[in-house]
Amino acid sequence: GSARAVVVAVGDHTLFGSMASAVSEEAVETNFTKGINAVSWVLIRFMLVMVPLVFMINGLTKGDWLQAFLFAISIAVGLTPEMLPMIVTTCLAKGAVSMSKKKTIVKNLNSIQNFGAFDILCTDKTGTLTQDRVVLEYHLNVNGEEDNRVLRHAYLNSYFQTGYKNLMDMAIIQKTEEAEAADPSLVDLSEHYVKVDEIPFDFTRRRLTTVVQDKSGKTQMVTKGAVEEMLGICAFAERDGAVCPLTREVRAQIFQTVEDLNEKGFRVLAIAQKNNPSPVGAFGVKDECDMVLIGYLAFLDPPKESTAAAIQALKDHGVTTKILTGDNDKVARTICKQVGLQVRNMLLGPDLENMSDAALAEAAEETDVFAKLTPDQKARVVSVLREKGHTVGFMGDGINDAAAMKAADIGISVDTAVDVAKESADIILLEKDLMVLEQGIVEGRKTYANMIKYIKMTASSNFGNMFSVLAASALLPFLPMMSVHLILLNLIYDLSCTTIPWDNVDEEYVASPRKWDAGSVGSFMIWLGPTSSIFDFVTYIFMYFVFCPFFVSHGVLFHDLTAHYSGAELLQMQAAYIGMFQAGWFVESMWSQTLVIHMIRTPKLPFLQSHASAPVTLLTLTGITVLTIIPFTPFGAMLGFVALPAAYFLYLIPCILLYMALATSLKKAYVRCYGKLL
C-alpha cells in the first residue's frame, strides 16, 4: 500500500530527543570532583605563601640565590602530596574490585566515593524497589467484574502500538495468549485486525491510543492510560452491555473501585474505546474525546524481598530514601507501606508545575514521596536537593529515569533496566538483592576515609616540616637539609603510604555520610603541623649545641669553628658538622612523620583501641628502618650525611614518644573543637 507521513517534530524537539539531549549533556560536577578540587586549592594556597618566603629568607641570609631557588622548589615539592593521584586511584579501584565481587558493575570510579557520601537516595518504584515482574491480575469492566472484552481491547492497544512495549504491555499480551484456550474470541486477534493509526504515549497525557479496523470495515479507537487522565477524555461508560453517560455517581464508583485496588498494591490502568471515529486529517490528541470507558486493568508488581531491609539499612547509615515515581499517589503510598518507608508528606507532579525552585527545595526536604512525575520533574527534584547541599543518588531502570540519573551525584541502575538507563548509570546492580546498596555505602565511606587520611596526615606533616625549614633557614648559618634530602625524605615517606588504601577503618566512621570538607584540611594542617615543628626545634637545639659539638668538633660550636680551625681542616670540620646535623634531623623527621600516621588515622587510642592493617604497619616500619640506615651507608655519605652516634637514639626515642603523646592530645582537642578527625 501507500501512506503519507506527517512530521510534527524532529531531533531534540521530540520527546525522546529531548530526553536523549538531557542525558548526553556534560555530567554535573559531583561531590567527589568538588572535594578534590577544593583540597587541591587549599594546598596551592599554602604553597603560594610558603615557597616565596623560603626563597626570600634563604636568599637574603645565605646570599646564594640559585641555591635559595632550588631549595624553594624542593619546598614546593615537599608541600605537595605527590602520591595523591595514586592513592586516590588505588582507593577507588580497590572499592570497585570489592563491589565487583558482590556482582556490582562500577562504570565510573569516582562514583565509589560518592556512594559513601550521598545522604539522600531518590529512587523510582517500578523495577527498582519492586521485582519488575509485572503480572496482569484482573481485567475488570466498569462494574468490577472479570470481562474478556476488556482484555481484548487492551491487547489491541498493546499489540499494535509501535513504541516501546513496557512490562505492562507484555503482561497484557501474555495474559491474552493464556486465555485463548478458554475464550475462542481471543484467538489470533492480530490476524483479525489491521492497524490504521496511532497516537503515541507521552508523560503529559499519560495515555496511548491505537486505531484499528476489523475485517468488516469497522474502525475503533482504543486508548489505554492512567485512570484520572482517561476519565478526562471519557463522556460515557459501558455498563451491563449498554452505553450510559459518565455521571458524577458513576465517576465516584469508578474512583472507589480504583482506590480499593491501589490500596492493595495494584497499579490500575483504564481502557476506553470509540467506534468509527471521524478525524479531520490525521488522527491526533484532539480526537481523544467523548470516549466510552469499558473497564480497568489491575497489575501487580510486588516489592523485592530485600527492599524493606535495604531501606532500613540505608536509614541506619544516615541515608534518607525518597520515592520519585510516575505512578499515582495511592499505589506509591501502598508500596511504601509494604517496604516500611514512612510517608510524612507527598507531592504530585501537577503541584510542582507552579512551584519555584526555592519553594520546591524547601518542600522536598520534608517530602518522602513524589508521584505522577514526568522525567523532567524527576531531574528537577534531584537538582534542587543538590542545590540545598545534599549529595544525591538516584536509582532507576526506565527511559524516564535517565535524566534524573544524569542530574544526580551518582546514578544507580539494576540488571533489568533499559539500555539508556544503564548508559546513564554510574553503578549497575547485577542482582536483585538491594542489600548491595548498604555494602556499597560502607565501601564508599572506607574509600573516602583512607583518601582523607593520606591527604590530612601528609599535608600536616609536610606543612610542619616546611615550617621547620622556614624557621631554620632564618636562624641557622647553613641549610638544615639539602634539597635532595627533602625529596628523598618525601619519596620514602610516600612509598610507606602506598598501603593506606588497604588500611582498617573504624566501624563508627562508616555509620554516617562522609563529604569532602576542604576547610578541614587547612585547619588540620594548622593544628597538627606545627606540633612536629616543636620537636624539630628541640632536635635543632640538641644537634647544634650538643651532639655535633660533642661528637664532631670537640666542643666547638659551628659559628666558632673559624676561630679554631682553618684551611682544609676547617672545611672538613664544617662538612662533618653539617652532615651530622642534617642526618639527625633527616632521621627524626622520618620517624615523626611516619609514626604519626598511627596517631592520626583514627580518633581512638592507636594500637590499643584501633590498629592499622598489617600492610600499613609493615610498610611504615620498613620505611623507618630504611631511612634510619641510610646515614650509615656509602649512599648516605654520597648525600653528605655523617653516621650518627648511638647516643643520638637515646635522645630520639623519648623525643618521638613525647611527640606521639602530644599529637594524641591535640588530636582529641581537635575532635572536641570540630566534631570529627577525618
From TrEMBL:
Record-annotated Cation-transporting P-type ATPase C-terminal domain positions: 478-667
InterPro entries, alphabetized: ATPase_P-typ_cation-transptr_C (IPR006068), ATPase_P-typ_cyto_dom_N (IPR023299), ATPase_P-typ_P_site (IPR018303), ATPase_P-typ_TM_dom_sf (IPR023298), HAD-like_sf (IPR036412), HAD_sf (IPR023214), P-type_ATPase_IIIB (IPR006415), P_typ_ATPase (IPR001757)
SUPFAM superfamilies assigned: Calcium ATPase, transmembrane domain M (SSF81665), HAD-like (SSF56784)
A GO term from the CC aspect: plasma membrane
Localization (cell): Cell membrane
Listed transmembrane segments: 38-57, 69-93, 466-493, 537-557, 612-632, 638-662
Official protein name in the record: Magnesium-translocating P-type ATPase
